[in-house]
Amino acid sequence: MAAARSFRTEQIRNVVVLGHGGSGKSTLIDAVCFASGTSRRKGSVGDGTALTMTTPEETGHGMSLQLTVAHAIWNGTKVNLLDTPGYMDFVGDASAAVRVADAAVVTVTAPSGVEVGTEMVWELCEKRGLPRMIFVSMMDKVHANFGRVIREVRELLAPGALPVEIPIGAASDFRGVVNLFTNKAQIFKPGTMTGEYEEGPIPDEVADDVEEWSTELMETLATTDEDLLDRYLEGEEIAPEEVVAALAGAVADGEVVPVFCGAAEQSFGVHSFTQRMVELLPHPGQAGEVEAAGDNGDAVQLRIADDETVSALVFKTSAEPHVGELSLFRVYSGMVVNGTELRNTARDTNERINHLAIPQARERVEVDGLHAGDIGVVAKLKSTHTNDTLCAPTNPVTLDGVAFPRPDISTAVRGATRADEDKMGEALGRLQEEDPTFVAEFNPELRQTIARGLGELHLDVQFERMKRKYGVSVETEQPRIAYRETITAPAEGQGRFKKQTGGRGQFGDCWIRLRPRSRGEGYEFTSAIKGGVIPTKYVPSVDRGIQEAAAKGVVAGYQMVDFTAECYDGSYHSVDSSDIAFKVAGSYAFRNVAAKARPALLEPIIEVTVTAPDEYVGDIMGDLNGRSARVLGMEPMGGKTAIMAQVAEAELYKYASVLRSITQGRGHHRRKLLGYDIVPPLRAAKIVAAAAEEER
Hints:
The chain is α+β, with helices and mostly antiparallel strands and 696 residues long. The chain has 16 helices and 37 strands.
């Protein structure tokens, strides 16, 4: 491991590595760190030894499942590399990495080209306005086609994408690249572990491609600078370092996306790619000022510089046995020094920063301090969690946190044993602290603990983590549906309660009318009592009795909603009447009248937005029709289509798996509760029968 030292702001690059699942992100990071010397061994995703695959869950599933930070040191510059999951169930971690990065590398495989996950992560970068580079990976694999990938990238992602390397050969014949800055071929040495190459003349087989792309590169860069344009038009030769400087400016402005290529498993192309990350991507200070909220809520502008007041954002927390909780953070302004006491503005508490370190995947390399813009890790903070701001106690500020997606895929969980059940609540709480896109809570209405995540795999992985970290095993089942009941016709009737036990008795008598209300309007109680037939003090008790009885309905035991209850008549006894007597009478009246008011079952209706490539729209529509969905419309999105539909919640259990199967993993969906609607009679009868069976 390279000796740990602090790096100044201009010596730092914060680069998030994004791409579709299986596009070679972890392999690229592993190769870059090994070639730079900050990692001692060349790992492999296939056997679970890649540098940033740090958990048994990742090894077991054969892919990255969480945000992991590593670093490479190249020619005196520290490149912080944020590895992200490519699977969309874990897009929360990708969002966190994009929030704290200054630039992005997007990996695209030479055989598969642009995939749906590529487009999704590209959109994350667009929202943050990140400068980008593309690395076309797996040039050594069968069906690798660099030309096709470039066409897809320019059509679907970035019209301004420009190759700055041209591959020599493809698949098993891939043996080098032509660098368009130097116009020299780099022929990789067979069996190289760190990507060594020899420079030579351009092979004839790629001469035409090199000339075509060199011309386009130079013409594009020349238009960014008048002096450069004049010199280019006059035929003057532009030095490679001038070309690099011009390209760096164009990348920072988002005008050009440079495209590189290689085969990271063999470390082919890693040397020049790492060098270009250092040369072309901006350092943290080039992003300008960062906005925060001051103590009074007013906006505050902070310079990304060491002599500014300290501010840092915690963007990831994780807990491991024998280590405790680790907090990954980015320093936005000021300098964090070991032993410093910082203020957590979200929790209104102070934290002392001890054992300050820089992350190298699962390892931590201790340092004395971190300059503005750097990424660090610290263990065992008392009260700090993801999205908290740490700052100077004398100048409290709050940074914008990560905009995590809302978890909306749910399952019910219970402990596998009584001992697991007792420990489950605490373990679920710890998982929530680590991952804001995972939420679990007990639902008293359903009498189940409901866990929510971004997908079924996301939930499965969380339960695997819970068993490994906290020794708690759970079983899953379909969540019960929060059905409701309502009435569909007006009705009226009496509720009378009389009880004589030898002493003072109990007497309450009321007449009520029930009327249906529009969906979502809830419950309303009115009194039309005249002449004191029920004393005013007892009328609220009738209301409470109706509400308590309505909580269990009259059809299948579900809460009754959206109706008006009017108490219009009744009688009382001067000695035996009481609050409790009229409460019971109100309950009796509700049950008597609701049964005559044509009661009906209501079910939750979910608004679903399904996004997938156009070729799958027919199959998705067929599946939605089979779920009795009401399709609201479709919106074309450049090769993809978003389908909006309303579906009964009961029809959506495990829908994510079905959609993944239909679209070969290229479709995803989001859902939100729209409201309630009446259950069709055939299904209602089954629900009533199931409720009756459960009561036995």
